[in-house]
Amino acid sequence: MYFLFIKVIEQKYKNDIFLALESVDINKASYFDAYNLDISLTDQIPILKGLFLPEEEKYEKQIIITAMVKEIKQVEEFVKILEESGMDIRNQEIIRLMTMPINYYFESGMK
Length: 111
Prior knowledge:
Elements: E1 2-8, H1 14-23, E2 30-35, H2 37-44, E3 61-69, H3 72-84, E4 95-101
Antiparallel strand pairs: 1-3, 1-4, 2-3
């Protein structure tokens, strides 16, 4: 079992990403809004404002998706579906994705 972490940088693809997760049987995922820390820091500390490029501001708000996956093959299929849908995830900054092995997992109420 693996922990899947996805950072959705380009929010206009949110629904496509949710559908792709469902289509490879990645269920019970959670998502929440997040903010780019670099942008948040420049807003709070004006002296840092000049250190970051203005075009980064469009990526201020991001989405984090987490899920448990049984096999890495599901994640590979997920990436393939995104590419086949026309999303240029190899060349554009749309998502960041990683998996981590889970050493222990407990789900309450599951037999």
